[in-house]
Amino acid sequence: MGEEWIENHFLKPEEISCRVQTLREDGLSLLLYITSRAGQDKLDKKFGLGLWSDSYEMVGDNLFCTITVWNKEIGQWVSRSDVGTASYTAKEKGRASDAFKRACVKWGIARELYSAPFIWIPAKNCNIVVKQDNKLAVRDNFKVNFIDYTQTGKINEIEIVNQNGDIVFKEYPDEKIGIAKQKAMKELMKKANVTEEQIKKHFRLDDLENINTTIFVKIMNKLNKTIEVKK
Q1: Rounded to 5 degrees, what angle do the CA atoms 69, 73, 75 make?
Q2: Using CA atoms, how far apart are residues 158 and 138, in angstroms rounded to an integer?
Q3: CA-CA distances (angstroms) from residue 134 to 124, 129, 130, 210?
Q4: pTM of the complete model beyond 0.85
Q5: Tell me: the pLDDT tens digits for 49-79?
Q6: d(Cα 83, Cα 62) in Å, to the nearest integer?
């Protein structure tokens, strides 16, 4: 699996939006979505400029988004739809955006976000208030600060921060490192002018594709020391 394939398929932190799913006095839960801009870019890359379109329709009380793309193999336009739900911040705009993002998933875009863990932020880590109508509201904005995936596209690590940059949720499983750390390690190896064979020999490893976080940290420390010595 090459880096170019990874860049085109797995979402970066800035391409992901966080939306409040449930809001209670003791905390809130978040859902992860691809941003509308990133969704448009992914559709352009996957199907080509001018070869897809989106439309919206109210069915009862539900707003549906339909994404239609040109299928070159069968020579026909093909459509897939999904329904949107209102957000806690912008009701109508949020519903249209939500419908678009859900429809993107129907075309295989941002499907990796469905492997996200349950994201719960306790009240002590967020600002939940009671409005005059006795309804709850949250005054925070959340974003993905870091995300990493396994080679099969499942979320391996994730870190979410608020508008102040404070970490409000994190999951760092001590498993095999994901593609973001693999890429960072290869870049540092190149900077240190150290080969993969040298690393494997020094740390007595069979390969660098299946190392865990503990070994990764040791390798990165060694590489940084090597760079410092060469300065």
Answers
A1: 65
A2: 22
A3: 20, 9, 6, 52
A4: no
A5: 999 999 999 988 889 999 999 998 899 999 9
A6: 7
Summarize pLDDT for 140-165 with one digit per residue, the tens.
999 999 998 887 788 888 999 999 99
Tokens at residue 176, please?
């095999």
Task: Quote the CA–CA distance of 220 and 227 in Å, as a whole number.
Answer: 11
Q: How far apart are CA 66 and CA 80, in angstroms?
A: 6
How far, CA to CA in Å, does 229 sit from each of 5, 216, 226?
Answer: 35, 20, 5
Residue 211 corresponds to which amino acid?
I
CA nearest to 43, candidates 88, 95, 97, 108:
108
Specify which residues 129 forms β-bridges with: 137
Q: How far apart, in whole angstroms, are the C-alpha atoms of residue 39 and residue 67?
A: 11
Q: Please name the residues in contact with 210: beta carbons below 8 A apart, sequence gap of 6 or more.
A: 176
